[in-house]
Structures are given as structure tokens and as C-alpha cells.
Design goal:
The protein has 21 helices and 32 strands. 32% of the residues lie in helices and 23% in strands. It is globular and about 105 Å long. With 733 residues, it is of the alpha/beta class. The longest helix is centred in the last third of the chain and has 25 residues, at 608-632. The strands form eight sheets. Strands 11-12-10-13-14-9-15 form a seven-stranded parallel β-sheet, sandwiched between helices. The structure holds zinc ion (2 copies).
């Protein structure tokens, strides 16, 4: 019996018989087959062989067609995907299908390399001599090939029908020969596009970098945490370790949070490494994705740089896996499909391939810090470079004690003026795009609401729109209150309004803004980076997009305008997020020879979290915050799974979750909490709710899920609600 994973919401592969005349070993694990499923046919992947089926053999149907004689998915990649389906409790066929480009899911050839036949010199001579006289079919084919440079199977097919025996005979006589050619478009590549003279040169290494490179280079499987502040030289460690892996003939997989936001890292890799590189992200066309997939599998590409889904790139024989900014939330798939963490899957992949994995961050995730403490991961500290300016001075600005203009306190405005006067640049961070988060009628108290969500609409003044940042709804920006007709007023600040305020204060100074709205236009990001690099723009306003990957040597002042948002959020990870963001943004200040200055506006200058961060830096803050997590048994000291559901009616999701809870097997060491409505219950017209599972250990939680999910699927309510399981959720929302 062969077990085939098909792209359907089924927890297990389906059992089939080998096609007539075949045995199971003709269908290798990881090969694609065409199978009947219900009344349709589907392409699936052979996930296992089994001696028998739980179903009577007479009920099993045979595989219709074997599409790959060799496994499409190499054994290591197949076992990684099976592990992912198992750990995240997601239908195995969907996990496998998501890892394949559409062309391969539809049955396209595994390889872009095809056989081509052409005439040899001996063949040409034979033809001249009138041979083969007694084999008209051979002679016909020889003549036909003589008229062209070569022909691939499809072309010979079209001309000669059944030709394989003829070709074999001609090959045996040495009259024709076979080679292979690339048929498809080349894979997506990157060039060193940013004019940075330092990009191609290897800088001298400092002691910490030497130690890190030696440790990584000497290791087989080991998870390393490369822990260093911005500018401490993490990328150089990646590059040198990558080159060493390439020198040994191995491949290199590099994960980054977002390709568009890390152009400098990608450019440095392509300028420095002596191997073909493919980029891999959600913006690729299907054709590009297929080309990159095939090139990686065949070994024509030996370095893959990509976002989350690149963790499943079919790179042959990876010798090093790098996860840059490993704390970044984008590594976790948070909606649709299998909700995996690419960072955690990367560690498992490294383990399965027995290669080192490097998790780089200035602000490691709490899970990662816990793994260091437990001895599972090994930390490689990178100190500031000796030639680097001292760490920036960080100070709080008490919003209660100072006047503010458009949300910017007077001391911050004064600091901007001072740094500009010294010939430097300033970076203003506010974690909210748009003009203002609220549109208010001061006469009757009306606030513009989203019709589909329990949320307010954000004012986007330049586009003259009200937008919902949760469901994407848009409506025209009204001038008057729809309820009483009084004039309405935007309240609060977003990037657009901060930009306007700063233009008012510094009318002569070039200013740029970077957020999802300005970056929507292709090349806008590149243009902004160029304007800041060239000094054309001297003030940069932006969301966390400005905190990632860019190196602006002349920025010496960083101001954080709305830190308070993270101080009182209900999510257990809010403080960790806030500290990571502040440290990342602050890392943009004074990276060259000048010491930087960081100002954080707050209404709560006494808040203990801000103090531990300011006094002791991220590590001290993390130690304090981890102690709180331990006391509350939150991750990383406990394990969570979240069963999320949504429905059109207010009660549908809660009804489903209540029935799901009722059929949960009792398991010692696992607590079920809820169901409760989500913090924002109505989103995009659907009502959201969840049921939380909490455990101290992983094993009992996963035992419960294994037994529980088949029961949930049987529930009549399971068909009416939309539901998904999130193992190790990032947040409970
Ligand atoms: Zn009103
Ligand atoms: Zn909405």
C-alpha cells in the first residue's frame, strides 16, 4: 500500500494500491503520483509505504500515474515537511502542497533540464555514406536531426511518434548523442544594486567575530545565537561562514524577515559570495518560484535568501542555515494555512541535516533566551566594534512636563534642530501609519467606526480617505459629522501628521516618510533610502519599516514618539515587542564615529519596564520580564495552543468552540481556558473567538491535540464555523 498526501483538509495521507504492473518501490517516497479522489483526480505526494491498510484491500483504488521516477522531494525535505504537519497538527497534504510551486502541484516536470539529442560527427559521416541503408526509420531520424542543432523529446515526439527504440539504436552506433538543456526561465537573482563602496570589501574582523566564525565553522548540528547590537558585524559573520560552507561544496539557506526591507544584506551576499544565489519571497511570480525551486533542487543555485517560506526551499545539501533577526514576528505564519514558525522549523531542519544554524539578533526572542539558559542553544556574543562610537545616550522625555506640538514634545523638536545644525540627520519613529487614528465629532462625540470591525477608522488625509487597518475597508473622508453635521476633527498622530508637523517646524529641510503607504509604489523604498543616503532628506519619519536593515551613517538622533502603546497592552508579549522595537530603532543612532542620542516620549517616565531597559539594556530588561513570565507560567515557561474560530453570526464561533471543548479528552497537565470572544471580536464582518490550551510540558499538550482534532472534525458545527489551530501562538487575540 502506498500512502499519498493530497492537497485536501485531511489529517492523514490516503491509502492506494500501486498501479497495475508496479510494486511500491516503483513509487519512491517524495515522488508525485496522480490519484483518484472522490470523483476527481489529484496530484499527490507519496508520503509512506505500508504493509497493509486499515481499509479492506478491495476498497482501495490504484494510483493512476507515477509522475516522478526519482523523488521530487528529497528524503530530508520530505521528513521536514512531515514533521511540520505533525507538530503544527495541520493536514499533511496541505503542508506538502504549500511547499511546492503551482506548476509542480499541477504535474509539471520536476526538472527544468530536458534531454536533447543531436547528430555526432560519425553520424554525419554515416549519413553521407548513405547509411543506414536497411533501416529507413533510423535514416529518416538521422536526416531530420542533421537539419537542426538538436531536438528535445517533445519535438521528436511530434515528428516521429514512437521513437525511443530508434534513438537507442542510433545512440548505440555512436551516430547521435544526448545532452541536457535548460528549458525554463532563469531563477530570480539579485545584483549589488546599492551604491555602497564598502559592499564588496571584507572589513578586518574583531575578536568576537573570529571566535563566532570558528565556532560555527567547526560545528555539526548546533543552534547558535549570534547576539550583538546593530553594527557589531553580524552580517560579516554570516558571509564568512557561508563562504566556508560553499567551499566545502554545501548549500546555504538564509532567512530574512522581509526581502524589500533588507536590500543591503541581500546586496552584500550577492557581491561577496562565489556562488549563484536565488531570492525567495511571496512576491515572486509562479514562473519565478518554479525556476527558483528547480534550480535549488538541482544544485544550480547553492544559496537561497528568502522570507518565511524559504525554510522549505529544496536546497540540496544545506551546510549552514542562517535566520537573521530571529525575533521578528513575520517568521510565524499567523493566518491561513499551516501556522508554522520558520525560525523553529529552521532549527529542526538543521538538526535533521546535522548542520549548524545561526539565529542572529540584537534582541533575541524570549524563547531563544530560554533555550540558551537550558543549554540547547549556544550564545555567541558580539561586542561593539572597537572602532564604533560608544552606545547612544538614551533619555526619556516626560510628556506631562513639556508642551507638545502635533504629538512631538518641545525637547524633541529642540534636539532635531540641534542635530540638524551639527550637519547630521534625525529619524522619527511612530508605530502608526496614516494621519490620525481617530476621527471625532467634538459636538456629539461621534467617532468614525468601521462597519465590519469593532475598530475605529484611521484618517488618511492626503488620500482623503478613512481606512480600516484591520479589514482594509475604505470610505471618503467626511468634513462633517454624519450624525449632527458639526465639523469633525482628526485626533492623535500617525506618520502622515508627524511629517506635516515637522515640515511646519523645519520648512527648509528635506524630509522623507517611510511606511506601508509610501512603500506601496514600486521602487519607493529604494528612492527613500537613496534620498536619506545622499543627504537630500535629513529627517526621516517612519514606522518599524525604518528599523530594519538600513544603515544610515549620518543619523545621530532617534526619537520614539509613541512607546506607551506597548506598556499597557493586554498581550503577554507586548513588553517584549516594545523593548525589541525600541532597541532596534535606537540602534539606528550614531553608528559611525559619532555617539548617538535616543529620546523616548512617554506619559509614564516611572514605568519599571522603561527603567530596566534604559538602565541595563535589553538583557537586563529580558531577565526582569522573563521572571514575570515564569511566575505566570506563560511561554517560554509553558506551552500554548489556540483554537481560533470565526463565523458570520455572533454565536456561531462560540457555539463551535463550546462543543469542541466538550469533546476534548481529559489530559493531565493541560488546562483549557475559554472559549472567549477575541479582544477585537468583530473583524471584517466575522465574529472571532478562541479557546486556549495551556500546559507546562509539550508532550501532554500534543497528546491531547492528537486525540482531539479528529473528534473536532466530526462535529456538525465544524462545518459551519471557520476554525484553525495555532500551536505556539505569538499572541492571544
Ligand atoms: Zn456630531
Ligand atoms: Zn474593518
Amino acid at each position: 500500500v502506498v500512502q499519498v498526501a493530497v492537497d485536501a483538509p485531511l489529517r492523514q495521507p490516503l491509502d492506494y494500491l500501486p498501479p497495475p504492473g508496479c510494486v511500491a518501490k516503483d513509487l519512491p517516497l517524495g515522488a508525485r503520483v496522480r490519484v483518484p479522489i472522490g470523483r476527481r483526480r489529484a496530484v499527490g505526494v507519496v508520503a509512506a509505504h505500508a504493509p497493509s491498510s486499515v481499509l479492506p484491500l478491495a476498497q482501495l483504488r490504484p494510483v493512476l500515474e507515477v509522475l516522478d521516477a526519482e523523488p521530487l522531494l528529497q528524503p530530508a525535505l520530505l521528513s521536514l515537511l512531515l514533521w511540520t504537519a505533525d507538530y503544527y497538527h495541520h493536514p499533511v497534504g496541505e503542508v506538502l502542497a504549500a511547499a511546492l510551486p503551482r506548476g509542480l502541484r499541477d504535474g509539471a516536470a520536476a526538472s527544468a533540464l530536458v534531454d536533447r539529442w543531436r547528430l555526432t560527427a560519425a553520424g554525419a559521416a554515416a549519413l553521407q555514406a548513405g547509411e543506414p541503408a536497411r533501416a529507413p526509420r533510423q535514416r529518416q531520424l538521422l536526416q531530420w536531426l542533421a537539419a537542426r542543432a538538436g531536438a528535445v523529446a517533445g519535438e521528436i515526439d511530434a515528428e516521429f511518434g514512437d521513437w525511443r527504440a530508434t534513438v537507442r539504436a542510433l545512440t548505440a552506433r555512436g551516430w547521435i548523442e544526448r545532452d541536457t538543456v535548460q528549458t525554463a526561465a532563469p531563477w530570480p537573482q539579485v545584483g549589488p544594486s546599492l551604491a555602497d563602496p564598502a559592499i564588496g570589501a571584507a572589513p578586518p574582523l574583531h575578536a568576537g567575530q573570529h571566535a563566532a566564525i570558528d565556532a560555527i565553522d567547526a560545528a555539526r548540528y548546533q543552534a547558535f545565537v549570534l547576539h550583538g547590537v546593530t553594527g557589531s558585524g553580524k552580517t560579516e559573520v554570516y558571509l564568512q561562514c557561508a563562504q566556508r560552507a560553499l567551499n566545502r561544496g554545501r548549500g546555504v539557506l538564509v532567512l530574512v524577515p522581509e526581502i524589500g526591507l533588507t536590500p543591503q544584506l541581500v546586496a552584500r551576499f550577492s557581491a561577496r559570495l562565489s556562488a549563484p544565489i536565488a531570492v525567495w519571497h511571496s512576491g515572486l511570480t509562479e514562473g519565478e518560484r518554479l525556476a527558483a525551486w528547480r534550480a535549488a533542487r538541482e544544485g544550480s543555485v547553492r544559496v537561497v535568501i528568502g522570507t518565511r517560506s524559504a525554510v522549505f526551499a529544496p536546497l540540496a545539501d544545506p551546510g549552514l542555515i542562517i535566520v537573521d533577526e530571529e525575533h521578528d514576528a513575520s517568521y510565524k505564519q499567523h493566518e491561513g494555512g499551516c501556522r508554522y514558525s520558520a525560525r523553529d522549523v529552521a532549527v529542526v531542519r538543521a538538526q535533521q541535516c546535522d548542520t549548524p544554524v545561526v539565529l542572529g539578533s540584537a534582541t533575541p526572542a524570549f524563547e531563544t533566551l530560554r533555550n540558551i539558559e537550558l543549554g540547547r542553544y549556544r550564545v555567541l556574543p558580539l561586542a561593539r566594534r572597537p572602532d564604533q562610537a560608544p552606545a547612544p545616550r538614551v533619555a526619556l522625555v516626560d510628556l506631562r512636563a513639556h508642551a507638545a506640538s502635533g504629538g512631538i514634545a518641545t525637547p524633541v523638536l529642540a534636539a532635531v534642530e540641534r542635530h540638524l545644525a551639527a550637519g547630521h540627520q534625525a529619524l522619527i519613529f511612530i508605530n502608526r501609519r496614516g494621519y490620525a487614528p481617530t476621527l471625532l465629532c467634538t459636538a456629539c462625540g461621534w467617532i468614525a467606526p468601521c462597519q465590519a470591525c469593532d475598530a475605529r477608522l484611521t484618517v488618511h488625509r492626503s488620500a482623503a480617505l478613512l481606512c480600516c487597518h484591520h479589514c482594509g475597508a475604505e470610505e471618503p473622508l467626511p468634513e462633517r459629522c454624519p450624525r449632527c453635521g458639526f465639523r469633525v476633527k482628526p485626533v492623535g498622530q500617525g506618520t502622515e501628521r508627524v511629517e506635516e508637523t515637522l515640515r511646519g517646524h523645519f520648512p527648509q529641510v528635506g524630509l522623507a516618510r517611510l511606511d506601508r503607504d509610501t512603500a506601496r509604489r514600486a521602487d519607493a523604498l529604494k528612492e527613500t533610502v537613496r534620498a536619506v543616503m545622499s543627504g537630500e532628506a535629513r529627517i526621516l519619519v517612519g514606522t518599524q519599516m525604518i528599523a530594519k536593515g538600513h544603515h544610515f551613517p549620518e543619523v545621530t538622533l532617534v526619537a520614539v514618539l509613541n512607546a506607551d502603546q506597548g506598556l499597557f497592552a493586554t498581550d503577554f508579549r507586548a513588553a517584549e515587542r516594545l523593548a525589541q522595537t525600541i532597541v532596534q530603532v535606537a540602534g539606528r543612532a550614531g553608528r559611525e564615529r559619532v555617539q548617538g542620542e535616543v529620546l523616548i516620549q512617554t506619559d509614564y517616565p516611572e514605568h519599571p519596564l522603561l527603567h530596566s531597559l534604559l538602565d541595563g539594556g535589553y538583557d537586563t530588561f529580558a531577565a526582569t520580564a522573563l521572571a514575570e513570565r515564569r511566575a505566570a507560567a506563560w511561554p517560554p515557561f509553558g506551552r500554548l495552543a489556540l483554537l481560533r474560530a470565526s463565523s458570520r453570526s455572533a454565536s456561531g464561533a462560540l457555539d463551535f468552540l463550546t462543543s469542541a471543548r466538550a469533546c476534548a479528552p481529559r489530559t493531565d497537565g493541560v488546562r483549557l481556558l475559554g472559549p472567549v470572544a477575541a479582544a477585537m471580536a468583530r473583524r471584517a464582518g466575522r465574529h472571532h473567538a478562541h479557546l486556549l490550551l495551556e500546559a507546562h510540558e509539550r508532550a501532554p499538550l500534543h497528546r491531547l491535540l492528537d486525540a482531539w482534532l479528529p473528534r473536532i472534525q466530526e462535529l456538525p458545527q465544524a462545518r459551519r464555523a471557520r476554525w484553525a489551530l495555532d500551536v505556539d501562538p505569538l499572541g492571544i487575540d
